[in-house]
Design a protein that fits this description.
alpha/beta
Length: 338
Amino acid sequence: MTAKMDMKTLVWYGAAGVAFLMFLPVLLPFLIPVFGLLIVLYMKRPDLLLIGGSELAMWKMGFRKRYRITGGYTYCYAERGQANPDKPTLLLLHGFSAARDLWWPLSIRIPKEFHLICLDLPGHGNTTRNMQDSFTYEAQAQRVHHFVKVMGLNRRPLHVIGISMGGGVAGLYAANFPKSLTKLSLLCPAGIKTEKVSDYDAHTQTNGYLPELPDSVEEYADVLPYFSYRLRHTKLPKQYWRGVQLLRTKDNPFYKKVLEHMMSNEAVDSLRENMAKITVPTQVIWGVHDRVLHPSTADILQEGIKNVEVHMLEHCGHVFISERPYKSANLLIKFAES
């Protein structure tokens, strides 16, 4: 049986190869300009390749980009599937200076019977940016609540998942609107001021610039070890960082404003100040080697939230959803279905 299947496979590949060679003279005039364009983009505008790759990944995974205009904002989000009466809708909130595509490595490992919505938080991605807005966790939680109500997500089981800044927003959302969700997952959430200084904070104090808001290609490359434990010794191509620079540097004034609001006296410890109000079942996940937000913060959440489970993941840092996507997805699925 195996030999028969192997022979069929061999014949199929052989036929495909012959067909390709037959049509190659016809395809060549089209392929040469395409490859030429890709080379030009790689050298001159690598940012466009990054955008294209993200959009292609979104469609390949079954997501569709959608917009909802309400309350003076145009909310952009990626949606996969439809509401399932047997499964909660998963609303995913990204971290600082990121967007909906942060969730692609994790989303592809979540079963398709789950309804997923990856939201661009106001000011980020393709959602409306108003420089006059407040960008504290509390203010963003209010806008998320408005989006949830307009979309009708609060009329069925809703599991809110937030990472880093998005975790702080998710925590404030759960604290202020406990009847609008059924479960909460906080992935290395921001919004808690600790006495232990992370490597990220130490770098900022020593070097005078924020690792997340560099200006040069070299500074962008220096950022990677702070966010990824597994890639801390990896050197990515210079053109990749050039693409990242083209995508992000123009937005640095906005990101600096967001950071100022997040670090203000009003917001810097707001998750700790409100965590006792969180009543829904809560899950906390943290990378043991997180160099951005100190892992010991998980202990504070474990003590301050009544119904909580905590998971510390080895061999990963701040972006553990990319470093250990299978483990992260399994923990979230198990919690969502429990």
